[in-house]
Amino acid sequence: MVDSVMTHGVSFRLTEEQEMLQKMARDFAAEEIIPVAEHYDRTAEFPEEIVRKGQQIGLVGLNIPEAYGGAGASVFEDCLVGEELAYGCSGISTAMNINNLAALPIIIGGSEEQKAYWLGERMVDGGDLAAYCVTEPGAGSNVVGIQTRAERKNGHYVLNGSKTFISNANHANFYTVFAVTDPNAGHRGISCFIVERESEGLSVSKHFDKMGQRAADTAEITFENVEVPAENMVGQEGYGFVLAMKVFDHSRPGVAAGAVGVARRAMDESIKYAKERETFGAPIWQHQAIGHKIADMAMNIDAARLLAWQAAWMVDNGATNPRTAAYAKAFAADMAMKTTIDAVQVFGGYGYMREYPVEKLVRDVKVFQIYEGTSEIQRNIIVRELFR
Question: Is 1 among the domain residues?
């Protein structure tokens, strides 16, 4: 845990409840995730049992408000949990945390009836899993470029198109889907819908064979004349783009925290190895070339965590700033990539072998520079906000 600090009236001290939540997540990672992470990485199986255990103790769907039976966790508290779970395995962590992401459009823009039914009855009481569907084969970071179409017909909407790189696609009971309702309205022509997995005309591909985060199911979803009730629209027609941007503001601090968790694991593994491995008559951490690598890891991990915490605090306190979230997401992702690469270097030839843990961390962490908006897109956001 970060040392408690008080500076200029800003407190970094966790409350007793937050410390308990952090410890619960840390213990869950140590007891339930780390012992089986290598198995799920090798087999690419979905960690159903672990996800269900996470549901039972409230670590899945953590952000669902208390009014609907959830824990009502803040974005900051999501960050605390996300770091600990990703420390164990970011693939399993993603499988657990996608419910948080899929719930966000409903939490932010849903009606009272939608929240009570989808969040309360379906996700909390029924244990349903959900997935978040924005990315398409031809539109990832450019949300305005999505082509999936939703046409109004006889009191319902008909969806046609496809979504790709959708986490938990094969295991979700329903999806929050963004589609174009007015092709002539640009970003104001996008809307969000809740779509049942068993809808006629909806099909899901076999899961993709990925480089990393292999425990997290990722697949393509195709919509062929899928009928969606009009009451399943989240918010007003044309509200989808604004809603997607608000979701990013809420989700990116947690993604940054996940990257911090992977980097912290790489540093801890490096420290452990550097104490045991000797060259030239001394443990390798005593050689400046290695010691300085690990010192840089520690500095950058703490810096990234503080950026994630700041971004989360701003969302929780109604001071959302896309630039702050972009700082956190880009810095944490790039930092974690460098940290895991340096960890392999600390391990030398052993770091390149699958029987040692850091090889997996490199593969797992790369996607942090890609999903939830690439590192390049984050820099575009920063430039836009600086020159606004």
Answer: no
Smallest CA-to-CA distance from 173 within 135, 148, 204 is with 204
Cα-only R_g, the chain: 21
Cα–Cα dist 145/235, whole Å = 20
Question: In whole angstroms, what is the distance from residue 278 CA to residue 36 CA?
Answer: 30
Neighbour-count burial of 153, counting CB atoms closer than 10 A to its CB (0-12 exposed, 13-18 middle, 19+ buried): exposed
- Work out the angle at residue 345's Cα, subtended by the Cα atoms of residues 268 and 354, and round it to the nearest 5 degrees: 75
pLDDT in tens, 3-26: 444 344 567 899 999 999 999 999
- CB proximity list for 143: less than 8 A, separation 6 or greater: 134, 178, 187, 190, 241, 244, 245
Element (H, E) at 77: helix 75-88
Instruction: Please give the average per-residue pLDDT across 375-387, as a whole number.
Output: 96
Say how far apart CA 79 and CA 255 lie, in whole Å. 8
With residues binned 3-state (H G I as helix, E B as strand, rest as coil), the percentages for the chain, rounded to 5, are: 55, 15, 25
Domain count, the chain: 3
pLDDT at 2: 45
Q: What is the CATH number of the domain that holds 139?
A: 2.40.110.10
Relative orientation angle of helices 375-386 and 322-347, to the nearest 10 degrees? 140
Total residue length of the chain: 388
Contact predicate 28/57, CB 8 Å: yes
Query: Looking at the structure, do residues 56 and 67 belong to the same domain, yes or no?
Result: yes
Angle at 290 between CA 285 and CA 292, to 5 degrees: 100
Catalytic (active-site) positions: 372
